[in-house]
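thread: overnight batch results

M.L. [08:02]
morning all. the overnight job finished for the chain we discussed friday. pasting input first so we're all looking at the same thing
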Amino acid sequence: MRHSASPLFGPGGVAPIVRAFQNPGTAAGDVTGPNENQDAGAAFPSDVLSHPPVNPNQPEMALPSGDPFADAHPRDPLAGAVPDAPPAADGVPIHGRRHMAGLMLGAMGVVFGDIGTSPLYALRQTVLATEGNLPNHVAVMGSLSMIFWALILVVTLKYVLIIMRADNNGEGGTLALAALAHRSPGMTRRIKATIGIGAIVGLALFFGDGMLTPAITVLSAVEGLKVESSAFEPLVVPLSLAILIALFMIQDRGTHKIGRLFGPVMLLWFFALAGFGLASLLRTPGILAAFNPWYAIQMFLHAPWVAFVSLGAVVLAVTGCEALYADMGHFGRKPIQYAWLFLALPALLLNYFGQGAALLRHPEQAEIAFFAVIPHWAHMPMVALASLAAIIASQAVITGVFSMTQQAVQLGQLPRMEIRHTSATDYGQIFVPRMNLALGIGVVLIVLIFKSSNALAAAYGIAVTGVMVIDTFNAGIVAGKQWRWSPLLVVALFGGMGISDLLFFTANSLKIPEGGWLPLFIAACVFVVMDTWRRGRRVHMEKVRSESLPLSLFLERADKSTTRVAGLGVFLSSRTDVVPGALLHNLKHNKVLHERVVIANVVVEDTPLVPAAKRLEVEKLGKGFYTVRIHHGFFETPDVPQALEEARRFGLALDVDTATFFIGRETLIPAERSELGKLRNRLYRALAANALSPARFYHLPPNRVVELGTQIAI
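M.L. [08:03]
and the structure it wrote out:
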């Protein structure tokens, strides 16, 4: 089972992020900056309108247009065909009900972790948001009605039934949807740039939201102890911290073993939600009238401002809805839809209505709405089960952060980091030590600062609503431009959804002074880092380009005064049309060339995985020179030696075990006048200096690597 269930980008973060974050014309190179395979300037059109030619005496090479999601696949049939799209998960033949049940069970454990733990706090916060300004009956019925219709309209109609139709090569998620929208015909450059910026903002919001989910879910579950006895209250924060710290400490062991328990535990959790909710509902069946939207409207008529403020809490019931779409690549559309419609949604509704019934009977129990439906005999077992469900939801988000970090690194949006695979069979099981440490410290600090789920609820939700707005915009473009829906239908349907999303977003914006600033601050920090890295890479690569020697010119003179020695030299390069800097430095200092020279160029494709048949492109240049373009998906970790072993079927037999790998090691120094500015320049150089070694990132054999250094002023 592969995991990810981030509220924004889902399992393993399988959202196909195409060229929004990558200059398609560059690939793994000989420069130090983390992920040399990216020209970070391609994220926005204005950054890459033009590039200096390699040599002023030669025509400038064709470079990417700079559109955030520009199609970068080579059109020259000799340069390589567009990789076949991976089969959609729905395309996997479902052999009977047992297979479908297995996929549904897996989805229960991965997809619904976040939204499945929302009953711990959603209705409680919505009712408390009325602050006693409404009669209890109006507050409970109106709050419940808003939550019901949010689940129906936002999750079921918008995501499950409409947006899940917009799959990108079988994958889903905010970035997949943005890529799909960007490929729509008849789009202006400005709209394409808006889509690309929205995708990057969504990624930053995801990291901001990723720190809050573990904190609020674990705190909400453990707070059930103080319902049993006030003597347990001092233990809530220490116990929550212990659970969270332990969770982060075991990340390096992988989740593939405990992941097998996720589905059954969450299934038990949903059955418990449904059972206890139904028992409470049957005692006060009149609560079913809250299905009528009039009760929600009545709240706005009775106290418009109070009702509007409560929308900021209603959104807590739909956090995690984007995971349903993002996890489509792992489980397929139908298993997720069936699991939602026939298991998760009924269980959530029964529990919410059960909580509402309990609050009608006992208004004073609003502070413990979730545990108000739990009988005394089941209270402590339910606290334990809630804690397990919270851990599962947290684990899914943590894994999602790892996956999105991997994608951001592969696509040149973040510096190179160590990425460990923790399972030999499940590719999505990865561990990113640096991100795990940052996330763990952030979550611990959040718990220590806010200390309760009530306080955290004020910070939670604004990132989710921001992504909802982005998704609605992109889905409307796909529906109108690609599905050919009637313009009136698109405007009416997606316009209505957009207004709803904006209402949720505006209501959550009121939380900014109370704590909503936190996810925005985290997202802003992430965005600054990503934007600095992107701009720094653009300046860096332009500096390298301006000093590069065209490969064709070099080959004309290669044999005139150069000593050739036996063996194979492999040079990693960001381009295949210029001479790698490491090769020039080797020739300058050692004054020899290997008998066979391979210029290796790694290209990140816009699909999660690249088929083996499409992995390599080999070109013989003559005089013992070859270029090898290695294609891999953004969900794969490049392994250059292993890829070169496969070159034999292209007529290039390489003895990789005896090859020498040359990489460039650049020391960055500030230029007198830097385009980045003083602070950004310092940040970029710090990021570059702390990047993972190219030798480790590309799995080069350490005892066969030669690094040749130079200084570059940026």
